[in-house]
């Protein structure tokens, strides 16, 4: 019995380590760089701390596409000033269920902060427990930045 519990515990630890490693890798989502959309890597430069700054974004507020997730629709608007993301406005976020409201309340400030810090949707830190919402945020932000780059 103790052996079985030890094996289950070891498998759980290895699974958690694998999940953390997978989450730290750059996330991609279907459609983010689909044919006909510009790749943001062409518009990004790195600085010494790994953050990126845009070079070709027009100033203004750009609304990303609505991204459907299993928990609801995610849509944001990116505010660009001086060619950089300076603010994120949440237009639609999952909120229909009580648990979704809690996750959204927790995820919004973190997603906003990481988007402003990283300046690149492909390098966002996802929110644990809100992976689908994070993917939707990333997709909508990419669409907003594509508009800012192409304006």
Q: Report the β-strand fraction as a percent range.
A: 15-25%
How would you describe the shape? elongated
CATH topology of the domain at 56-151: Sufe protein. Chain: A
What is the helix fraction of residues, given as a range?
Answer: 40-55%
Q: Please mark out the parts with pLDDT under 50 across 5 or more consecutive residues, or reply none.
A: 24-54
Give the biggest sheet.
4 strands, antiparallel
Order of helices and strands: HEEEEEEHH
CATH architecture title of the domain at 56-151: Alpha-Beta Complex
Count the strands? 6
Q: Quote the distance from N terminus to C terminus.
A: 65 Å
Brief description of this entry?
The protein is α+β, with helices and mostly antiparallel strands and 151 residues long. It has helices at 2-24, 98-118, 131-150; strands at residues 44-46, 52-54, 60-63, 67-69, 72-81, 84-92.
């Amino acid at each position: 019995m103790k052996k079985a519990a030890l094996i289950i515990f070891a498998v759980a630890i290895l699974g958690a380590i694998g999940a953390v490693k997978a989450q730290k890798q750059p996330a991609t989502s279907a459609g983010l760089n689909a044919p006909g959309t510009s790749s943001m890597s062409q518009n990004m430069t790195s600085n010494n701390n790994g953050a990126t700054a845009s070079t070709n974004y027009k100033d203004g507020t750009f609304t990303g596409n609505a991204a459907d997730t299993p928990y609801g629709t995610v849509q944001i608007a990116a505010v660009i000033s001086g060619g950089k993301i300076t603010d994120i406005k949440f237009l639609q976020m999952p909120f229909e269920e009580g648990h979704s409201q809690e996750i959204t309340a927790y995820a919004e400030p973190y997603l906003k902060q990481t988007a402003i810090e990283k300046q690149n949707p492909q390098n966002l830190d996802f929110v644990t427990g809100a992976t689908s919402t994070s993917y939707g945020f990333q997709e909508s932000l990419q669409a907003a930045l594509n508009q800012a780059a192409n304006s």
